[in-house]
Design a protein that fits this description.
The protein has 472 residues and is mainly beta. The chain is built from three helices and 22 strands.
């Protein structure tokens, strides 16, 4: 590939060279400290089991359980994350505006303290800082920041009758299926300022949220709740009569005063009603979701439009009891587009807070006005390593609507010829080297289809990324 990508490989080789020693000293399936496996959501870890540990543990793992005073149930846990990530793009706009390729080097620093005061009260505080260089034309707000408050919340757990509930108030990460993602591909993960309630009632698992998205700013300790971006939701889940299968029902209201669609930028209030069925059995797995959206969108300087949109997603596969545990799978997505620009309605489907790499790791397109078919195969040569190869075939649903980028700017304007957008073959790997180190990467190439070519997209887009994450 190009010289720039060779430079990326050289940087990663230098960074990852020391990890080979670590990999030899600790096997992925036998952690140095049994019970210690850092998670993506650090607040999901609980080290209360160390209260009666017979043997002392070494530093820095000893920082996971420090008693507070003489209280038998109170302790504080300290931890941190460091991630180095390199993203490389060639022809990022398919040559339509001759945008230059670039290599972006990103660093994420996180430190947290998790204090438990018995089984009812918990305080979690996480500080973060982020560096980025190389992105063109400019860095995104989620790419860089001086030290800031990444998360800070209080949990109160209570047990009315035989059920357990938890109220969380403050700045927090939220992940709700495909609707709300933490946006881990960027340096600064998405957070919300507000209140969340989780609990169980009569066999149902219930999650409620009322919050505003956190507005990321570049200076130190200046992030604030975004007055232009709020969400309220209720999601309930219940087991189905089929073993290991569940049903989810979701109602989400997203209030976005700077929403962007083909008619322009304006004030949107969108309600999403979703149904999801998912589970696995006898080597098969199944996850299907359908959503219907209503509401209104008022572009600046134009009459308000009534929202009526539909979206659906499916992923299913089979894992075989063979060496390397091969899994053959198929993914299908459909996000409605606007079919008539003059009918005072908006048919563009929009996930409230999607993952920027929802469709592929390259993060080229948003799940709006598109449908895709994505067959892929995954292999695990060892339990800690997953290799995936596949291809995405992407179409637009309506020529009367735009095709949007992952940050909601139009890639293909309404009009043009043809519906086929792109073919995107890809390779991906995820290797948990040991409990403290994880290495991920992917290579994607997008070949333009007739819809892109009719808009001037004559060049294929190439993308590669690699990241090394250390957690303690």
């Amino acid at each position: 590939m190009r010289v720039r990508f060779c430079a990326v490989a050289s940087i990663l080789a230098l960074v990852l060279a020391p990890t080979s020693v670590v990999a030899q000293e600790a096997t992925p399936t036998a952690p140095a400290w049994p019970g210690y496996v850092p998670k993506l959501f650090r607040w999901d870890e609980d080290y209360g089991f160390l209260r009666n540990a017979a043997d002392p543990v070494p530093y820095p793992l000893r920082l996971k359980y420090l008693p507070i005073g003489d209280a038998s149930q109170a302790y504080v846990s300290f931890g941190g994350d460091y991630r180095l990530r390199v993203d490389d793009y060639g022809h990022p706009d398919f040559g339509m505006r001759a945008a230059p390729g670039f290599t972006s080097l990103q660093q994420r620093f996180l430190l947290h303290a998790d204090a438990h005061f018995g089984s009812e009260l918990r305080v979690f505080v996480q500080l973060g800082g982020d560096l980025e260089s190389g992105r063109k034309p400019v860095a995104r707000p989620s790419d860089h920041s001086h030290p800031d408050l990444a998360q800070a919340f209080v949990d109160w757990s209570f047990d009315p009758s035989d059920e357990r509930w938890r109220l969380r108030v403050g700045r927090q990460e939220v992940a709700i299926g495909r609707y709300i993602a933490v946006r881990d591909v960027t340096n600064i993960r998405r957070t919300f300022d507000g209140a969340r309630l989780d609990g169980n009632f009569a066999g149902w698992t219930i999650t409620g949220l009322a919050a505003r998205a956190t507005r990321n700013r570049p200076a130190a300790f200046d992030d604030t709740p975004d007055s232009k971006d709020g969400v309220a939701l209720v999601v309930v889940e219940h087991p189905l009569p089929i073993d290991n299968f569940k049903l989810d029902l979701a109602v989400i209201e997203h209030d976005n005063k700077v929403a962007r669609y083909a008619p322009g930028v304006g004030d949107e209030r969108r309600k999403t009603f979703g149904v999801r069925v998912f589970g696995s059995r006898d080597g098969w797995d199944f996850d299907a979701q359908v959503s219907y959206q209503t509401g209104s969108f008022a572009p600046i300087g134009s009459p308000a439009l009534e929202i009526r949109a539909i979206g659906a997603a499916f992923e299913g596969g089979r894992t075989f009891a063979l060496p390397w545990s091969p899994r053959l799978a198929l993914r299908i997505d459909a996000a409605g587009g606007d079919g008539n620009a003059k009918d005072r309605r908006l048919g563009t489907f929009d996930l409230p807070y999607p993952n920027l790499s929802y469709l592929t790791d390259a993060g080229i397109f948003a799940p709006r006005n598109v449908r895709d078919l994505q067959p892929f195969v995954s292999l695990s040569p060892i339990s800690s390593l997953t290799l995936t190869a596949g291809a995405e075939f992407l179409w637009r649903n309506s020529t009367m609507d735009a095709v949007f980028s992952a940050i909601d700017t139009p890639v293909i304007a309404p009009g043009g010829h043809g519906n086929y957008v792109a073919t995107e073959p890809y390779l991906r790997f995820d290797w948990r080297i040991n409990p403290l180190l994880e290495w991920q990467g992917a290579v994607v190439h997008a070949f333009p289809g007739s819809a892109l070519e009719s808009s001037g997209g004559r060049h294929g887009l190439s993308y590669a990324y690699s990241s090394l994450t250390a957690r303690f």
